[in-house]
């Protein structure tokens, strides 16, 4: 019986860790780097349920707090290239902004063609 328990217990613990580690890593990243966390935004402000498999928020979720897309474009109009006033029209927020941490500039869709743009993405 002891041998069986000693065999099953480590497998059970490993399975639990495998299921929770990505969520824990995201939560740690959010706490350490996220401007939203620094401003007092909690997980449930963007995620409707508290589950690790909860889908990421949509642009609709972002715009509920950050205002209509037009106002965001107005706030960023002084930039050399206004990413919120694109010739492609309104874009999905998550294409440029990371969910829990800043997006790497080279992963921003505009950079595929406009590699001379300099963006500091928050």
UniProtKB/TrEMBL annotation:
It comes from the Bacteria. The keyword Amino-acid biosynthesis does not apply. Residues 36-115 form the Tetrahaem cytochrome domain. Pfam families: Cytochrom_c3_2 (PF14537). InterPro entries: Multihaem_cyt_sf (IPR036280), Tetrahaem_cytochrome (IPR012286). One of its GO terms (cellular component) is cell envelope. One of its GO terms (molecular function) is metal ion binding. It is found in: Cell envelope. Residues 1-24 form the signal peptide. Keywords: Electron transport, Heme, Iron, Metal-binding, Signal, Transport. Its cofactor is heme c. This is Cytochrome c3. It comes from Propionivibrio dicarboxylicus.
